[in-house]
Structures are given as C-alpha cells and as structure tokens.
Amino acid sequence: MRKILVVDDDPTVSEVVTNYLERAGFAVVGAADGPEALRLAAEHRPDLVVLDLMLPGTDGLEVCRTLRGRGPVPVIMLTARGAEEDRVLGLEVGADDYVIKPFSPRELVLRVESVLRRGAAAPPAGGPVSGGGITLDPAARTATRDGRELSLTLREFDLLAHLLRHPGRAHSREELMREVWGWEFGDLSTVTVHVRRLRGKVEDDPADPRLIRTVWGVGYRFEAGGPGREDGPGREDGPGRAGEPGRAGEPGRAGAPGRAGGGDA
Length: 265
Description:
Elements: E1 3-7, H1 11-23, E2 27-31, H2 34-44, E3 48-52, H3 60-70, E4 75-79, H4 84-92, E5 97-100, H5 105-120, E6 129-131, E7 134-137, E8 142-145, E9 148-149, H6 154-165, E10 170-172, H7 173-181, H8 189-202, E11 212-215, E12 219-222
Parallel strand pairs: 1-2, 1-3, 3-4, 4-5
Antiparallel strand pairs: 6-7, 7-8, 8-9, 10-12, 11-12
C-alpha cells in the first residue's frame, strides 16, 4: 500500500483529502505544520507528499526544499494563490505538480496516481544513453555527468532522458508536456521551469547553456556534440501558457481530468 503524507493546516481540507486518498487505497499520514511534516516524512518515508503552500511557521516552499534535499520523494503542492509566480516558485523548489484551491478531491487523487504511476513505470527498453558528457541509466534511474552523479527529481530525470534519446531535435514545450508529463494541454511554465532547473544541474554555465539549447519560437534542443552558439539571446524565454490556469477541470489546467463530482476541498 502506497503511503501519502498530507500536509495542511486546515483540518477540513486535510480530512477531505485524507478520506478520498484512503478510499483510493492509499495509507495516509497527516501533518498540520512544517516541522511536523518534516518529522513524519523522516519517520514514515512516504511515497508522495501532498503539501499546502501556506503553512504556519515554516511554509510549504521551505518544507519542499528540505524534502527535496533529503531525496527524490514526489511532491504535489496545494496552493490557494493562483498567481503564476506562486506556481513557478513551487516548481522551482522541486514540486512535481501543483493543484490550485478550490479543487476537486477526485482530481487530486488522479494527480497523485499519475505522479506515482510515472515514477513506477517500467524503464524504457534499451541500455544507458549518453551525450554531452552525461550518461543516463533508465533501469537504475541514475544519471551522471563526467562521472559525477546528478541529483534529479522524477520529472527532471524523465525530461533529461527524453532529450538524450533525441539529440539534435527541436522539441516544443507542448510536445515535452505531452511526452514527459503525459498532459495534453496546460500551463507551459511547468516545462520552462523544469528546463531551467535541469540546466542548473547539467550545464557549466546555466546562464549560457550549451547542452540544452533554446530554439526560439519552437522550444528546446539537446546538443550532444558540445558547445555551440545559442539559437537566440542568452536569456531564458518567458513561461508562456496554453490557456489560463483556471480552476480544476477547466481547459487551461495541465491534464486536468475534470471535476468529476465530489465537491470542492
């Protein structure tokens, strides 16, 4: 039975989320603040953390940073703040996904199942792939650059694997969202932020990337052959969106499965 740590200081939200997750077959541990969340995470070693952004004392961003520093546990961020900068902050500290309040509890369960399914998916056929000094072993889920192991989140690993398998090919952010995240539409800043984070781990100078190159007006391309001139200015492109973020189940959300009843949390 997969174990989920739910962190929210609102007892009503926590109770509703816990009930839906337990009905879906998960074991749930609950925490109401950051220090308790970190203690329970160390004690129970959850398979995934559902984490509220707005917590008393230690906020969700700091909790997420600490969790990501300990290991690759997936994190889904809950936020009542729908502004793009808040969602981007959550992704930048290592969250794998985010859900904006108010939300459908059934949607959250589907998001949890999606993230866990992606992490437990059978590794792609074939052996290790390499390029640009990076070697990635899908079976062991390890990646190294020049012999140094890279600490990658689940999404960062899958993104790097996809780019390494298609060197020299330009990928749109819509394509990466579909192939790496399994979402048909949504907020493209998710891809932008993960590319930025991945560059910070694989590039000599993330501000002047030579491996993961921006193809202006298209998306990104992995250059396995080494340094070259960037296809545009040296700064990162803007986040971009496919539709507006909206509430759960509306077209602007990435892969939102719909409200499917059950009321709002």
